[in-house]
Amino acid sequence: MKIYLSFPLAVALMLGLGSCGPAENPTEEARPEAERSAIEARLITELSPSDDRAGRQRNAIINRAIDRNYDVYAAPEGYFYEILEEGSFNPLDSGDIVTVHYTGNFLDGTEFDNSHRRGTPLRFRVGDLIPAWNLALQRVRPGARLRILTPSDLAYGAAGLAAPNGDTLVPAHEPLEFLIEDIQIWEE
């Protein structure tokens, strides 16, 4: 059975539904066109002329950032980051014990891990995880929200990541995107 709507009714429904509930990705911000253009122009200068794996991954990360309107910055170590909320108190340091909630995605947007879905934050010592996390977390303070786009050599590299049952969670040489939030520091 097909349902046909008049154009005014269809527009009203789309506008009404569009204003209900959360956005597709609540971490993306609507930016004025001038700001979007400035971010894109800045990121285009970061593109790599190299056609090796590292260059292709860097370019894929930059393209993801441009496509999704992320205002990321290149870290000297090779990952890209965007601090979405500053947090407060002292910056995190290597060795600090923290809990975080996070979502991990492939660059095509497919989610491969989500602590919210498990219902429990991840607890770890800064310095004990993948290099991109260890480095980027030292840029923020407790309470911060942080986006990381990382090449595979600062994530799971050639080994990838396997589940305890042996299933592949992250294939080898896969660049990744993480949204890290609800960062809390713990005293031992």
Automatic annotation (TrEMBL):
Q: Which UniProt keywords apply?
A: Isomerase, Rotamase, Signal
Supply the Gene3D superfamilies for this chain: 3.10.50.40
Q: Where is the PPIase FKBP-type domain?
A: 95-186
Which residue spans adopt a coiled-coil conformation according to this UniProt entry?
A: none
SUPFAM superfamilies, alphabetized: FKBP-like
Class in the EC hierarchy, top level: isomerase
Q: May I ask which residue range the UniProt record assigns to the signal sequence? A: 1-23
Name the EC number(s): 5.2.1.8
Q: Does the keyword Calcium apply?
A: no
Q: Which reaction does it catalyse?
A: [protein]-peptidylproline (omega=180) = [protein]-peptidylproline (omega=0)
Record's keyword annotation contains Isomerase: yes
A GO MF annotation of the entry reads: peptidyl-prolyl cis-trans isomerase activity
Q: Which family does it belong to?
A: Belongs to the FKBP-type PPIase family.
Identification of the protein by name: Peptidyl-prolyl cis-trans isomerase
